[in-house]
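Closing statement on the oxa(dethia)-CoA sub-project.
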Amino acid sequence: MSSNVIGAGILGMGSALPERVLTNSDLEKMVDTSDEWIIKRTGISERRILDKGEPVFQLGVKAAERAISDAGIASEDIDLIIAATTSPDYVFPQMSCMIQSKIGAKKAAAFDMNVACSGFVYAMSVAKQFIASGTYKYILIIGCEGLSKLTDWEDRNTCVLFGDGAGAAVMGPVENGYGVLSTYLGADGEMGNVLTLPFCCFTQADLDVRPNKNKNVIWMDGGEVFKFAVKIMEQASLRAIEDANLKVEDIDFVFPHQANIRIIDGALKRLGFTHEKMHLVIQKYGNISSASIPVAMDEALREGKIKKGDNIVLVGFGGGLTWASAVIKWSK
Ligand code: UT7
């Protein structure tokens, strides 16, 4: 989809991270790993972790308040809230409703969306349709995760990877020709078993692969996810660029999902997207799933790296397996 009835873009952004820092040397004391291995194989030095009783949605509230203030609107103006999350505090009330209540967005409809790490770009695509059709004017989308609550802290294959955080955007009408130019979404359910988090119902196989037989933790076949991610990040980027009627050379900045620096390099260097065209946060936050793209965008904006008219690619992949990409012409 590349044609807009009403141009839809990002009017404001915000992010929030927990205070507590968990370093690679902290992890060396918990599992058989090393700072050197983690940095070399993933690019991660440290991550932010919520304290035990600290709820996940509070990060979303902080990120949302910052995005609303940055957009220069009032909470009461928001028509819809979409929370992209795989780690809600409750199944219901939904995270989107919990955030709605705290920020006082009284007239907003609200729902959660679970598309794992692809969630923020999926949410952006849905929001764009509502704005372009004239159904809603202001939509708050939030990627908010507390993966530390779903991590097996004795499994070195996964516990070194994840962190907690939230990033939010207020979307609304923008000048025609600006905003979201294209979105491309996809899924391959046949590959779903390489990255799993059981909930109500689970199989013996789900228990067997988990070292501590605990169903409520993330498990993945890292190698399979890695191969899939490298392939799909390149393909999805190209597809969104093509759908926006642009060429790779027209792209000024790229925000990939940040799961592993080797995935980013393997997928995107070939397209000429070097680190100079990115804002990397993986070294300090780890993989924060649906929050990874908006947190990086918010930081890049605050550092003045993005200017009006820049063509920006967002591209992510995640559990499902799923993927999503978008091209935005920055409108602020
Ligand atoms: O957001 C979407 C979700 N996740 C991802 O995108 C992650 C995708 N996958 C990856 O990033 C990588 O596959 C990992 C970082 C998970 C693993 O890196 P790898 O280079 O693919 O390592 P590997 O799984 O092939 O393991 C190599 C060795 C193994 O030892 P042996 O069997 O060769 O003796 C592992 O047991 O490294 C070992 N290993 C570790 N060693 C030290 C695995 N984890 C660790 C660790 N510290 N934390």
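Residues 251 and 311 are 5 Å apart (CA to CA). With this model delivered, the sub-project is considered complete and its resources will be redirected to Aim 3.
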